[in-house]
Amino acid sequence: MIRFDKVSKQYPDGTVAVDELDLVAPSGEITVFVGPSGCGKTTSLRMINRMIEPTGGRILIDDQDVTKVDSAKLRRGIGYVIQHAGLFPHRTIVDNIASVPYLLGTDKKQARALAMELMERVGLDTRFAKRYPAQLSGGQQQRVGVARALAADPPVMLMDEPFSAVDPVVRDQLQEEFLRLQSDLGKTIVFVTHDIDEAIKLGDHVAVLRVGGHLAQLATPAELLSR
Ligand code: ADP
Ligand code: ADP
Questions:
Q1: Could you give the CA distance from residue 155 to residue 151 in angstroms, rounded to a whole number?
Q2: What is the mean pLDDT of the chain?
Q3: What ipTM goes with this model?
Q4: How far apart are alpha carbons 179 and 102 in whole angstroms?
Q5: Which-ligand-closest: CA of 10?
Q6: DSSP secondary structure string, 31-91?
Q7: 43 in ligand 1 pocket by Cβ < 6 Å?
Q8: Which residue from 58, 67, 164, 216 could staple onto 208, CB 3.0 to 4.6 Å apart?
């Protein structure tokens, strides 16, 4: 469980990106942060893995304050997927996916076998293993990004607009596959999007944010739809 306890972030220029955010993202479920550009979604997400430090309040993962955990250790337990997959351009697909296991000292052969298995899981043709990111479509690159984030089998996944840059048909496929994968894996997921339809489709819980970093409401998709 991830708990935001009156979390605020004011940037040095005075911008208040997040204002006393209080919420819980339950374990094994998908919590979506939705709202217009600039409402503090990315800032909130990046405070979970300490890419950004809050200026007020605290974030707890399973009752442990994230600022009290060594940040390398913290990040091993947190997969991170962004809009443009952020793959290493000069590494093959299989080496991109295996990059975290390599870092952790996993035997190369074993790491590659794991990467191939993950390619299948996320719906990538394993014949792409030796290709480079630029040789894949946007949707395929996002699948690689998801596979790479899963490679250390982290209990928590942070996803920042992972499906926003692909065309609507591919987006739909990626969303469906993501839901199937999650029903197997049961990760604790915080998912950021500006698209309310995506939030309703994917979220177990939807946190609606307003510019200024206020939580407007926290509801289930069913509750949002019945209003
Ligand atoms: P994205 O994740 O959308 O590619 P960024 O994370 O770089 O983009 O920025 C997210 C938002 O924060 C954007 O609205 C951007 O304009 C704003 N932003 C990023 N860095 C700064 C900064 N140093 N000063 C002001 N606004 C910034
Ligand atoms: P969202 O992800 O919802 O688009 P962000 O968290 O990126 O929102 O940004 C929230 C607010 O903080 C925006 O007003 C943005 O311009 C500002 N912001 C983001 N990063 C910085 C930064 N590094 N310095 C100053 N302001 C920033």
A1: 11
A2: 94
A3: 0.73
A4: 28
A5: 2
A6: EEEE-STTSSHHHHHHHHTTSS--SEEEEEETTEEGGGS-HHHHHHTEEEE-SS----TTS
A7: no
A8: 216
